[in-house]
Amino acid sequence: MSTSRRLFVCTNQKSGVGEDVAKALKKELKHQGLKKQVVDGHKQRTQVQTCDCLDLCRDCKKGPGAALIVYPEGTVYGNVRPADAAELVAEHIGQGKVLKRLRVEE
């Protein structure tokens, strides 16, 4: 059985940081070998998907980063910068741990 995980990254910011975050996440998934993995005996594929709006601007206006949601878990991150990609991929995708410093509480 194969499952899919997606990282939806908002690209609606004027600075274009969302596109940069998406590129950095894609690069890190490949670099860390986590784009395709086996979790609990099941194949899991992780993809990065850009989108126009996640309705999370209130969580990103205070900083220069982008908002993103990890699906299907529903974990919401805010103010994510390209420099955060390596840690986010290693912790959340690789180890299944929420990166608390970037998490947005709903």
Describe this structure in words.
With 106 residues, this protein is α+β, with helices and mostly antiparallel strands. The chain is built from two helices and five strands; from the N terminus they run βαββββα. It has helices spanning 17-31, 85-95, and strands spanning 2-10, 36-39, 42-51, 66-71, 75-80. A five-stranded mixed beta sheet has the order 2-3-1-4-5, with helices on one face. A hairpin with a 2-residue loop joins strand 2 and strand 3. Helix 1 crosses helix 2. The protein is globular. The model has no long low-confidence stretch (mean pLDDT 88).
Secondary structure blueprint with pairings:
Elements: E1 2-10, H1 17-31, E2 36-39, E3 42-51, E4 66-71, E5 75-80, H2 85-95
Helix pairs in contact: 1-2
